[in-house]
Design brief:
The complex is a heterodimer of chains A (252) and B (429). In chain A, 38% of the residues lie in helices and 21% in strands. Chain A has 252 residues and is of the alpha/beta class. In chain A, the strands form 2 sheets. Chain A has a 5-stranded mixed β-sheet. Chain A has a 5-stranded mixed β-sheet with strand order 8-7-6-9-10. In chain A, a hairpin with a 3-residue loop joins β1 and β2. Chain B is α/β, with parallel strands linked by helices and 429 residues long. Helix content of chain B is 54%, strand content 10%. Chain B has 19 helices and 8 strands. A 4-stranded parallel β-sheet of chain B has the order 2-1-3-4, with helices on both faces. Chain B has a 4-stranded parallel β-sheet with strand order 6-5-7-8, sandwiched between helices. Chain B starts with a helix and ends in a 5-residue tail after the last helix. The chains are: A alpha/beta (252), B alpha/beta (429). At the A-B interface, α3 and β8 of A face α19 of B.
């Protein structure tokens, strides 16, 4: 019997399946686009809806489509992080449109959490817009960062104003590598200030699409003064947590 | 609402088109938030009626009072003493400021980054959509927070405002200032109404407001039971109506409700399942018709069992000492009682921290939701101390900082659902 987690996010929708013994099986990530209901139907095709737990901002849509249960992405993120590393005590999820930090207790449960979902600063959206302004694909954005920003700072917190700032820097002939590094430092600063509202533990994991950016993770590690781990597929960590919950509910 | 109300609204100088739009929003909203609830006490019928007649019957009562030469005084805050207003024979009305109305007019004067409550009270006046404001002969303001202090200066250009200086601290010299402010206010009310305020009229007013507070205290005692016999939304609605309905009638209707709820408690009947997550709301007040957060919370299956707020416990927790015999003694008793209100505008405000802990304990809550309006410095800054105290007593707390818009309903729901999941897993026990 397999159990699946469906994470319907603002940018991407992910489905992950686990077996009864906990082995991670098939997984898929697609763009949510304009038709989340369509994505839900596509991804859950062939699966017993009762064996699926949905999470993410689109979870109530999935509930309407008949999935077995729904949990918030906070709980799902904690379960996913715990499944990937049972000693993880802090997880930072840098999502498409929000960032969240979660403290886990010894049993992998949510002890405390903080979210920034009011503003795009520090999120994947911020990175996309900046990459676009610099004529770069967001997937390789980190590769274009220089070794040092040499004290260059992006002053604006707001994504829209930061984009204007970047364009001004480009037109004034500023080195692109420095700009990209400064942007990464800005994102890390936002994440750190959110994380510092909690008691950050010792074993920090980063998940979400942005965690694939090695430069970002490196800078985060330095800023938090801790080693930061990234799972092989950081974009499916939350969906994995939902799958773990699906298995738990069935096996209760 | 009846046709004669239109003539009445026109006579008050309301912008009829804008007013109609505002009124049109209420019935479907009220249906969704209130009437769709299950297992509501029958006695809520009266309060539903009051809301349906919100700009009708009560306004007519105010006009009839004015036609006989009576005065109406509007206030915005708990520190405005209703007893001094009513002792002069005037009617005291709390002006709501709980909706995003007239914001574009208000933002001609106020910065965008102003708390919604302040934008609302200025907006209501400027947009000419509130018959309560238009019925007032005098408005009472106070120097509680910076925003209100400066907004009253602007409001005074449009309607006369008498500002009370509420002290910053609660030492003896501050009490003396406050007593003298209320004695001066007594003079203002006498001037406005042409009636002398003597000891007997003060005693009568105090008796009426004490009775109202006692009724609300009894209502809230009943919410200590599990299952809760009444929803948080219904209790909040009653607490909101307390500020503008006729006090004697209101009190008797609350007592009828209390009797019905006592019956429910005896039979173990509640509005939710026994063992449903119990929440204490704490922080800024939710003025009518601000129901956004309680609606999200109770839709998630939790039940709110108390409001540690001005529209809540701070309003009815303390009674006025009725034993005085002279005007000075009675005004002093009024002043002393009002200074017990633990608003974050005062410093230090340790008593609030203790009150939040005590309420959370006494009501057997599973968690506290701290509610603050965006840009409200006193409450958003005091939160850090509230959080520390609750963390120390292992009481889970969720901070919600928001405004009157509907934009963040999804985000708030996610946070609250995650909070319930967290409490449910037995964390912190």
């Amino acid at each position: 019997m397999i159990f699946s987690g469906l994470d319907i996010g603002s940018r991407t929708t992910a489905l992950v399946s686990v077996s009864e013994s906990g082995e991670i099986g098939d997984w898929k990530v697609v763009d949510t686009g304009y038709d989340p209901k369509g994505r839900i139907a596509e991804l859950s095709n062939g699966l017993d809806p009762g064996s699926i737990v949905a999470t993410g901002y689109g979870r109530s849509l999935a509930k309407e489509s008949g999935v077995g249960g729904i949990i918030t992405e906070i709980m799902a993120c904690a379960l996913g992080a715990n499944e990937l590393d049972s000693l993880c005590d802090t997880v930072l999820d840098i999502g498409g449109q929000d960032i969240k930090v979660i403290s886990l207790n010894g049993r992998g449960e949510v002890e405390d959490f903080e979210m920034n979902d009011r503003c795009a600063a520090g999120t994947g959206k911020f990175m996309e817009i900046m990459a676009n302004a610099l004529g770069c694909e967001v997937e390789i954005f980190g590769d274009t960062a220089g070794d040092s920003s040499e004290g260059l700072k992006i002053n604006s917190m707001c994504t829209v104003f930061a984009e204007s700032e970047v364009i001004s820097l480009i037109t004034s002939g500023e080195d692109r590598g420095k700009i990209v590094r400064a942007l990464h430092e800005s994102i890390v600063e936002r994440c750190a200030s959110l994380a510092n509202r909690l008691d950050i533990g010792e074993r920090v994991m980063v998940v979400g699409g942005a965690a694939k950016n090695g430069v970002l993770v490196d800078l985060l590690s330095k800023r938090l003064n801790r080693k930061v781990s990234v799972p092989d597929e950081p974009q499916i960590a939350v969906a994995l947590g939902a799958a773990v919950e699906a298995r738990r509910r069935f096996c209760k | 609402m009846a046709e004669d109300y239109c003539k009445m609204w026109e006579a008050l100088g309301l912008d009829l088109e804008a007013h109609d739009q505002l009124l049109g929003v209420i019935p479907p909203l009220y249906q969704e938030v209130y009437l769709n609830q299950e297992k509501r006490p029958k006695s809520m019928d009266y309060f539903d009626f009051v809301v349906m007649e919100i700009h009708g019957l009560r306004i007519k009562e105010l006009q009839d009072h004015k036609a006989k030469g009576g005065k109406v005084v509007g206030s915005f805050c708990l520190y405005a003493p209703e007893e001094i207003v009513t002792a002069a024979g005037a009617i005291s009305v709390g002006l709501c400021s709980g909706a995003e109305i007239g914001f574009s007019e208000a933002e001609k004067y106020l910065p965008r980054n102003t708390c919604s409550l302040i934008k609302s009270f200025l907006g209501f006046k400027l947009a000419k959509v509130c018959p309560y404001v238009e019925s007032c002969d005098l408005l009472v303001g106070e120097t509680t927070c910076d925003g209100k202090k400066k907004a009253f200066e602007l409001l005074n250009d449009f309607a006369p405002v008498h500002v009370l200086e509420t002290p910053q601290m609660k030492r003896e010299k501050d009490r003396e200032l406050w007593r003298s402010e209320l004695m001066e206010f007594k003079g203002v009310m006498e001037g406005l109404t042409g009636s002398e305020i003597d000891a007997q009229s003060l005693k009568n007013s105090i008796a009426v407001s004490n009775a109202k507070r006692r009724a609300l205290q009894r209502l809230n005692e009943l919410r200590k039971n599990d299952p809760a016999p009444i929803s948080g939304k219904d209790a909040l609605l009653i607490e909101q109506i307390a500020f503008y309905d006729d006090p004697v009638r209101f009190t008797s209707k609350v007592e009828e409700l209390n009797a019905e709820l006592e019956g429910r408690v005896a039979r173990g009947e509640g509005v939710s399942e026994k063992g449903a997550v119990r929440i204490l709301m704490s922080g800024c007040p939710m003025a009518i018709p601000n129901w956004k957060l309680p609606h999200i919370v109770e839709n998630s299956g939790a039940v709110i069992v108390g409001e540690e707020s001005c529209i809540g416990h701070r309003y009815f927790r303390d009674l006025i000492d009725e034993t005085g015999n002279s005007v000075e003694e009675l005004v002093s008793a009024i002043a002393d009682r009002y200074l017990k209100i633990d608003c974050a505008c005062f410093t230090p405000n340790d008593e609030r921290i203790q009150n939040v802990k005590d309420l959370a304990n006494d009501y057997g809550v599973n968690g506290v939701v701290h509610y603050s309006l965006q840009f409200c410095d006193p409450y958003t800054i005091e939160y850090a101390r509230v959080k520390k105290a609750l963390d120390d007593s292992r009481m889970p707390v969720l901070k919600i900082d928001t405004d009157y818009s509907q934009e963040d309903v999804g985000q708030i729901k996610t946070r609250f659902d995650a909070f319930v999941e967290m409490i449910g897993s037995g964390v912190r026990v």
